[in-house]
Amino acid sequence: MPHRYIKKILSANVYDVAVETPVDPARSLSKRLANNILIKREDLQPIFSFKIRGAYNCISKLTDTQRASGVVCASAGNHAQGVAMSAQHLGIDATIVMPKSTPEIKVNSVRALGAKVILHGDSFAQAFAHSRTLMADLGMVYIHPFDDEHVIAGQGTVAVELLRQVQGNIDVVFVPVGGGGLIAGMSVYIKYLRPDIKIIGVEPEDSCCLKAAMDAGERVILSEVGTFAEGVAVAQIGKLNFELAQQYVDEVITVTTDELCAAIKDIYGDTRAVAEPSGACAVAGLKKYVEREKAQGQTLVAVSTGANLNFDRLRHVAERAEIGEGREAIIAAEIPEQPGSFKRFCTALGERNITEFNYRYGNNTKAQVFVGVTLKTDEGGREPLLKQLASHHITAVDLSNNEMAKSHVRYMVGGHASVDNEVVYRFTFPERPGALLKFLNKLGQLWNISMFHYRNHGSAYGRVLVAMQVRPEDKVKFEGYLDELGYAFNEETDNPAYQLFLAPE
Question: Which residues in the chain come in under a pLDDT of 50?
Answer without folding.
Answer: none
